[in-house]
Amino acid sequence: MKFRNVELLDEAELDLRAGESFYNEREVGLGDYFVDCLLSDLSSLQHYAGIHSKRNGCFRLISKRFPFAVYYELEEERVVVIAILDMRRKPNTIRNLVAKRSTTDGTEPSGSGAT
Question: Considering the entire predicted model, what is its pTM?
Fold first, then answer.
């Protein structure tokens, strides 16, 4: 089993914070639970990156507890998370966001922070 570094684009981190805010507006503490669940999903990518199906040109991990999907690209020694999106959005919106953030065209990610 290969161990990889998981890095989030700045935009993906903003997606995570937006989800946290959304759920905190619904119920106090639910946003914290959302973040904990998504961080658990993200940490699983250290070992299981690449086993998920591809959607919109990227691998897609579906969160276990929330209707969110993690879109990521796999590089040799790292996993680059490009988006953490609510799956209840319009498919065209998701497709456009993923395409806009994708680095598969050879460009470098706009920013990343390690998790």
Answer: 0.87
